[in-house]
Amino acid sequence: MMGIAADNISDGNNISNLSFVKFNKLYSEKYNTTLDPNWLGWFVGFAEGDGYLGINEKIPVFVLTQKESKILYEIRDTLNFGYVKEFDNFSRFIVRDKLSILLLFHLFNGNLHLKHKINQLVEWSILLNSKNDNNLSIITEPVKLSFNNSWFSGFTDAEGCFNVYISKNNKGISLRFIVDQQDGLSLFNQLKDILDSGSIYARKNNNYRFAVTNINKLVLVIDYFNAYVLRSKKQFAFEKWKVIYNCVLNKEHKTLKGMEKLKELSYLVNKDND
Description:
The chain is of the alpha+beta class. It is 46% helix and 18% strand.
């Protein structure tokens, strides 16, 4: 039986590094292989953005909902567990079986950044510890955001977008990197510190938006996603957005021909963000 001997719920240290040693040890025992830490970091970020750690009929369940079904099948095939269910306008990756849920518990434990996701994991631990011989200790301290791992790439695939705005007179152009998240204020304050730029907007139902438009600071965003590649179709949006960024730096938007090129690219950027 997979589990960790521990003493109840405890706070961990404030950390910025992700650790997958425990997960990969247990994963290797079941599948005789390990998973790439960069992929795992991406997946945890993606799961924190669009995933739900729920309980259904007293059974822990993990659900990822997406319009882009392709990425969910890639997740299923990489993890080698769970299944994808398709609906009319969206798809869901679902994990329900006990051993796979335990693997996900060890994957998420100590690697989560958002308090409400940690609270969901706490509910998992309480239910799992009430059954059989599990004695799972949960780390309740959120991980600090870092641009030195792939977590934010996954989170952006779930909750971010690359935006281009062209003024009505076709003479001005601005680029924005945007991330939205419910209860995301703490995370976005950390992101603002990392980039030394950006604005945070409070929206309805405790939702927050972070946006950065400073052309000189956007290079930090570009450098990050060059190092930690997006895995959804937002990667295509990012590649076109980078082209526009370089054109703006070179002042190509100052000519009629250049602006027409950027208008076409901006349409494709916004389309790939859907």
